[in-house]
Every structure is written in structure tokens, then in C-alpha cells.
Amino acid sequence: QSALTQPASVSGSLGQSITISCTGTSSDVGSYNLVSWYQQHPGKAPKVMIYEVNKRPSGASNRFSGSKSGNTVSLTISGLQAEDEADYYCCSYTGSSTWVFGGGTKLTVL
Amino acid sequence: EVQLVQSGAEVKNPGESLKISCKGSGYSFTTYWIAWVRQKPGKGLEWMGRIFPSDSDTTYSPSFRGQVTISADKSTSTAYLQWSNLKASDTAMYYCARLEGIPLWGQGTLVTVSS
């Protein structure tokens, strides 16, 4: 199946808020709330920031939030900080016992 | 501590075989699917397949079916990813991950295939 669609890059200034979108289809994002978001710094393993669309694990900053509308999920980061600069990936269950990732979004903090 | 710990980095020649591991601890290993995820240098994450350790039920991405084998040993809470004929194009970081419930990832295993 095709990867979920994410913007290649987004940027924002310190203290601002940004939103990263992730678009799938009615067969994956649109049908299941099994969508997660991962932050990955260079040379590091992915770190879960949001799971099941809008749940935040312990250890993840409350500046991160998730939402869903139709076949699109979004990750919002408020009060941007320098350490938020990283790659972000969405991931969704597809319903045919498979999962799919988004292509990734590079966040630049200005 | 709930964690997935992967085996160390590997350097192999083309045509060789390889089996890397992922050991779970701190939770009921047999009740969650374990996925394998590939990340080629400078590229994104790719879901390769998954296994249910309780009965070794396995699902593969069409892109990886026939290229790798996923297995598990529930007695040791360990999942495996193996190749029988490595290619240079298999050079990548490989992660094991529990994608359901509260997601959990291993630290990654770097596989380098070069002559």
C-alpha cells in the first residue's frame, strides 16, 4: 500500500505553533484510530509523541497534541522549542493486518 | 523497565546470511504484535512485517515478502529478522517495534552489506 502523505518540510519560529498533516485513505486513517506520531532526531531511534490519534505517553511534552478529521490526522506542536527540530513520522494501521508510515516531515525551528 | 533490546551492529558481505534479534522485557511479550521497520540511510521509515509471538502468526508487507523471514521464540521473549542472501541494498538501520498499545521501539540494529 502507498505511504501516508506528509509535507516534506515545515518551519516555525521559537514559541510559535505548527501543525503537520498526514493524509491517508478511508482504508487506513479514515477507518481506524490506530495512528501514532514519532519524533526522530539524527542518529536516534524514533520516539512516540502521540498514539491512538490523540493520546500522549508519559514522557512526551504536553506541547504536542494530535487530532483527526476524515482521512487526515494532524500533529500540533505549540510553543516551539529548539529541541523540537527533528523529523516527524505518522503511522497508521491499514486493516489488512499491515501498517504504513508517512514519508516524514522535517521540522525546522527558526 | 518495559523495553525492546536489539542485537548489535553487523557488517556482512553480499550473499551472506544474517539473523538479528529483538528481546522484550517488562511486559507480556506474547500478547502484542512485534513489527520490523527498515530505515535506509537518509530515508524514511518502512514497515516490513510483524509477528504475534504467542503463535508466530506473521504478516509481511508486499515489498518485503520473500526477501526476509520474521520469527519469534516466545520462551525467550525474542523476535528475529533474517536474510538468507544479503544484498548491498539491504544496508539500513532496522528497528523492532510494538506499534499497538503504547508504542515501544528498540534502539535499532545497523546492518551494513559491503564487499
Which features would summarize this protein structure in a list?
heterodimer, A: 110 residues, 9 strands, 44% strand, B: 4-stranded antiparallel sheet, globular
What does this structure look like?
- The complex is a heterodimer of chains A (110) and B (115).
- Chain A has no helices and 9 strands.
- Chain A has 110 residues and is an all-beta fold.
- In chain A, strands 1, 3, 4, 7, 8 and 9 form a 6-stranded mixed β-sheet that branches. A 3-stranded antiparallel β-sheet of chain A has the order 2-6-5, with no helix packed on it.
- Chain B is an all-beta fold.
- Helices cover 0% and strands 50% of the residues of chain B.
- Chain B is built from no helices and 11 strands.
- In chain B, strands 2, 4, 5, 6, 9, 10 and 11 form a 7-stranded mixed β-sheet that branches. In chain B, strands 1-3-8-7 form a 4-stranded antiparallel β-sheet, with no helix packed on it.
- In chain B, a hairpin with a 5-residue loop joins strand 9 and strand 10.
